[in-house]
């Protein structure tokens, strides 16, 4: 069985779902990325990534209630699964181990 690969943007979106918890929906994720990372992202790219993460089993979604602010439309809320949390922990550990291999560089000039 091949280990599932998680791309950089997938990892970012998955992390935001974990941060936002019950408030994790498309626009909130976009705003969180802009605010916390300073990266401009496209709502449709976030949606495509969320659906890909759902296909991989890292998030699950459900429909929230309709609101007047959204013209009666419901928003799809995403939550991180145990598999998604395990993937984030594995990615963090992998990065920590790699950083330990980087020699302590001295800044000159």
The unreliable regions are none
Q: Which sheet architecture does the biggest sheet show?
A: 2 strands, antiparallel
Rg from Cα: 17 Å
CATH names the topology as: Arc Repressor Mutant, subunit A
What is the level 1 CATH name? Mainly Alpha
Counting DSSP H or I runs of 4 or more residues, the number of helices is 4
Number of E strands: 2
Question: Roughly what percent helix?
Answer: 40-55%
**Superfamily (CATH H level) name:** Winged helix-like DNA-binding domain superfamily/Winged helix DNA-binding domain
Number of domain units: 1
Q: Strand order across the biggest sheet?
A: 1-2
Termini separation comes to 49 Å
Mean pLDDT: 89
Give helix and strand order, one letter per element, not per position: HHHEEH
Q: Which class best fits the helix and strand makeup?
A: alpha+beta
Query: What oligomeric assembly is this protein in?
Result: single chain
């Amino acid at each position: 069985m091949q280990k599932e690969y998680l791309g950089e943007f997938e990892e970012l979106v998955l992390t935001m779902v974990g941060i936002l918890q019950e408030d994790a929906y498309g626009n909130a994720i976009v705003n969180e990325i802009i605010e916390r990372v300073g990266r401009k992202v496209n709502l449709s790219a976030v949606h495509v990534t969320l659906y890909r993460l759902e296909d991989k089993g890292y998030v699950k979604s459900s429909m929230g209630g309709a609101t007047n602010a959204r013209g009666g439309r419901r928003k799809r809320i995403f939550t991180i699964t145990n598999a998604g949390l395990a993937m984030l922990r594995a990615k963090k550990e992998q990065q920590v181990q790699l950083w330990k291999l980087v020699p302590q560089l001295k800044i000159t000039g």
